[in-house]
Amino acid sequence: MSEQARPARPSIEELRAVAQPPSVVGRRNSEHWAGTLYLRRMSLYFTRAVLPTGISANGVTWLMIAIGIIGAAVLMIPSWWAILACAILMQLQILVDCSDGEVARWRGTSSPMGVYLDRVGHYVTEAALPIALGIHVDGGLGSIGGWTVVGALTGCLVLLKKSFGDLVFVARHYAGLPKTDESVEVTGSRSSGLRSARSLLRFFPFFRAFVAIEFSLITLVAATFGLVLASLGVVADGEVLRWWTLAALPLALATAAGFLLMIVTSRRFD
């Protein structure tokens, strides 16, 4: 079926065949929540609903960005319900993130602008969440203090880690090299010690803690666990959430440093 002949109200089977090719759902690093779990299964229904509206793929991406910003803003509110709402919004954000590409593939409107906006959305959201958590722990926007500084430092490290990955493509472009792939042979370190360490991290994947969904869920678990312990008189109110806010800083540092080390010892620049 040509792109011009594709209907605005396709069946789920028709949409899946075009919008979710193996090259997309099989991406090793990009499809953790989306492909291997459940959001890709749900996103087709959202995509099918928005196609008749005429909204562009980039318009869907702008919606994804807005949801991420709203989720981080909600997290600043010092309430357990705000943390729950943030976790739900991060799920919705990734669902919409799946949908923008599906809309583009169905209509044949994929563009560099879409890729750029997608990157902007993830950069903004994943950096804003630790900052918002720091504000939450401080007691809200009216009580900004030391915990906000900790969250801001964590957010900066998250930005650095993400830029390290994208700068690989920038460096290859300036060197006149084609886009690299995500295969283990290319992304794996030349160092056997680093490869072994990375293999062990499968059992403790703390490097995923700063992806939007993971971060929001960890925060929700910490807040819930803290409420239970506080009700039992084991810890002070908000203590566990403060532990997580503080622990996130060295974890972000380790993640950024480790990612940089893996990149410079890999075959990404060959």
Itemize the secondary structure elements and their pairings.
Elements: H1 12-19, H2 22-25, H3 39-50, H4 57-75, H5 80-107, H6 112-138, H7 146-174, H8 184-187, H9 192-200, H10 212-231, H11 239-264
Helix content: 55-70%
Report the span from N to C terminus: 39 Å
Determine the number of helices (DSSP H or I, runs of at least 4 residues). Answer: 11
**Low-confidence parts, pLDDT < 50 over ≥5 residues?**
none
* Strand content range: under 5%
Tell the overall outline. Answer: globular
Can you give a write-up of this model?
By secondary structure, the protein is mostly helical. Helix content is 69%, strand content 0%. The two termini are 39 Å apart. The mean pLDDT is 87.
How is this structure best summarized?
With about 270 residues, this protein is mainly alpha-helical. Helix content is about 70%, strand content about 0%.
Keywords:
0% strand, 270 residues, mainly alpha, globular
